[in-house]
Inverse folding.
């Protein structure tokens, strides 16, 4: 049922992608804001309590409905699974940005590409060259695909089922919502949310990197993973981007050195890179790299689906 649920959800999303401003996401955002306003008293323990209460408020009803559907009818259980996967996946939700940037660069319209990139990443893209735009778009696409697709696949395949997919996606959102805004950045309240998502994403991030390596240039992907992933402050992002870049023969990430030998913020993802020891191998990203990224993502998706199919067969035969 896991493979069939994901396959149907992917097909539905191809025909009708879920908008980013849909009512379900709006309700979760309101819940997260309400929990922060209620529990935040400046201590890390308050953030831990808010995270647990938020998850219980979402996971318990979802699990009860899943259990009830399985008791009533396998078709109802399948329908519930498809609905949850459809709501938690985001394969097509942001692809229009990537496609539009690719078309703008191919036509030489760098101004439009900068505007689209700034809207997508919510970072200042003024003055960026075509190569920098391409690099940032590739980085954003790889990380977004992992968090909105492959991470969901992994947790949905776990025994928690649809509750696992909800757990992963909400944990990813809380790690951003309780740390990125100006009034929360650096506060202890968001520390637990960051740690919780790190734990939940530890295995999926590495499986995504392995998938990129298998469907791309394996040797270069593994070499880049081992030697350059540490340049990013966020370990999971470093693993995904270094392996993805190596698989395509691209040099991703920005130089971390400056005159004062201090960290430099990566404009693509808001991450901080540590000082570089050596320059990564690979070519600089160009507009053609965006097409390579599309191919890599689709091949990785097919690999994940094949593994899920084999897993479903093994469970059925067992």
């Amino acid at each position: 049922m896991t493979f069939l649920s994901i396959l149907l959800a992917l097909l539905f999303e191809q025909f009708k992608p879920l908008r980013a401003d849909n009512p379900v996401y709006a309700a979760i955002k309101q819940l997260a804001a309400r929990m922060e306003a209620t529990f935040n008293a400046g201590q890390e323990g308050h953030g831990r309590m808010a995270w647990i209460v938020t998850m219980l408020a979402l996971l318990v009803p979802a699990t009860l409905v899943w259990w009830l559907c399985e008791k009533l009818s396998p078709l109802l259980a399948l329908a519930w699974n498809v609905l949850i996967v459809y709501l938690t996946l985001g394969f097509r939700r942001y692809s229009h940005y990537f496609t539009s940037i690719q078309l703008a660069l191919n036509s030489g319209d760098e101004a439009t590409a900068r505007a689209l990139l700034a809207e997508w990443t919510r970072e200042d893209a003024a003055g960026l060259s075509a190569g920098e735009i391409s690099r940032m778009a590739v980085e954003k696409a790889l990380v977004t695909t992992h968090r909105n697709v492959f991470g969901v696949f992994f947790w949905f395949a776990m025994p928690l089922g649809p509750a696992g997919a909800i757990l992963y996606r909400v944990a990813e959102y809380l790690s951003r919502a309780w740390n990125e805004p100006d009034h929360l950045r650096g506060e202890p309240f968001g520390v637990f949310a960051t740690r919780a998502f790190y734990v939940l994403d530890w295995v999926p991030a590495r499986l995504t990197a392995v998938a990129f390596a298998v469907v791309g240039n394996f040797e270069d992907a593994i070499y880049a993973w081992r030697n350059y992933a540490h340049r990013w402050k966020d370990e999971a992002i470093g693993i995904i981007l270094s392996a993805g870049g190596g698989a395509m023969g691209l040099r991703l990430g920005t130089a971390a050195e400056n005159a004062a030998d201090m960290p430099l913020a990566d404009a693509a993802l808001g991450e901080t890179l540590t000082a570089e020891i050596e320059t990564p191998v690979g070519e600089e990203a160009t507009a053609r790299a965006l097409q390579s990224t599309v191919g890599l993502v689709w091949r990785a998706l097919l690999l994940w689906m094949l593994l899920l199919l084999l897993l479903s067969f093994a469970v059925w035969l067992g």
